[in-house]
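Running log. JK asked me to keep both predictions on one page so they can be read side by side. First protein, sequence followed by its tokens:
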Amino acid sequence: MSYPPFKSAKELASKIDAYFNYIEGEYHLETVPAKGTKQTETVEQKVTDREAEPATITGLALYLGFNSRLAFDDYEQTGRFATVIKRGRLRVEAAYEKKLHQSPAGAMFALKNIGWKEKTEEKPAAGNTLTSLKIEIIETGPKPVESEKDVVL
């Protein structure tokens, strides 16, 4: 499998930093008249040139020059600068984790993935284990009818 040529770990780390800077988007400031004031008063307003985008593993792989996720994953396992790639992946995962805290469901999902359980599981005491259970069905009362026509009031 061929990989993008990285000359050093420092170069690769720099490209990963560049990816995270790139996804922040681009903007410039414009001076505009302040709302509700005289025309002589102005404020600086942020104008977006390129929208920010979320960090993704696939986006990182493409930015670094990989042709597939498989090649990226393989390089992460066996590549010369695998530790740098692993750190880049952690940065993407950290971005996802930050978003999990925006809702209770996200926090619950994160806690479950690190081993928390919703309910405690009670284990029976060693001497109280049930080995068999006998169920007997006893019919009581009138038998059920097959249709409404059979009901007598």
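And the second, directly underneath as requested:
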Amino acid sequence: MEHELEKAKKVLSEGDYTCVMVKGEQVYTSRERGIKPLYHIVKEHADRKGYVAADKVVGKAAAFMYVLMEVKNVYAQVISTPALEVLKAAGIEVTFEKSVEAIRNRTNTGFCPMESAVMEVQMPEEALEVLRKKLEECG
């Protein structure tokens, strides 16, 4: 697993990706921002069980998506405290460069709308429904 995590981190940093998932020789990459790539993986029931993930920013919404995917390890360049709690509670190993209280929005005028949407949510399945509505609202 350590080899897979190092590979995922290397691909993330060298490829200008937002998230990378690795399992053996299988590598999934995305340059989409926010939780969209993770949300689509969960909605499409793509099998990511047992993968390791490397991500630029992991907020609570992304953490719930990783729990639903059943990844085994998440590396984040930046992670929010609520995301860290969600991942640890699910038994997912977590490493990170920087921890913050909450993820800020892209204009740095407040918190990320996805993080805010799930702040009071406790269950991953509930988060999925809340995020579906929020994504529809945001377009």
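Observation for JK regarding the second prediction: Residues 124-138 form the longest helix (15 residues).
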